[in-house]
Amino acid sequence: MKKSNILQINNHYIQEELQKSQRYRQEKKQKNRFMGSILILVVFLFVLPTYNLVASYQTLQKREAQLIELEDRYKELARQQKMESSLVKKLEDEEYVAKYIRAKIQYSKDGEFIYNIPGLLPR
């Protein structure tokens, strides 16, 4: 084994410099830990509002889809109501009622023949 030619001086000045460098490293390590914990806190503070924002956006999308569905349903019901009210007005006319009954339930007077032609039924 080869013997080292370096001689280490162990005096008061060297000891102080070693202690200074150790304190410097410890302070730097503490600062790094502090900055790391601050960084984690900042990330956490940005994650919560982002999560809430995403959840709110998803809720908004669901409600918009529900609104579109309800508007379509409203249009369909309004159309049905218009047809029904039209039928009610037509049923107030006795002549129409007689035609309607004859066409729908094939009611006939004595001696009459009924021929069904598709598309000619009163509405």
UniProtKB/TrEMBL annotation:
Top-level taxon in the UniProt lineage: Bacteria
Membrane-crossing segments per the record: 34-54
Pfam families assigned: DivIC
InterPro entries xref list: DivIC, FtsL/DivIC
Keyword Protein transport: no
Coiled-coil segments: 60-94
This protein's UniProt keywords: Coiled coil, Membrane, Transmembrane, Transmembrane helix
Biological process, per Gene Ontology: cell division
Keyword Membrane: yes
The protein's name in its UniProt record: Septum formation initiator family protein
Lineage: Bacteria, Bacillati, Bacillota, Bacilli, Lactobacillales
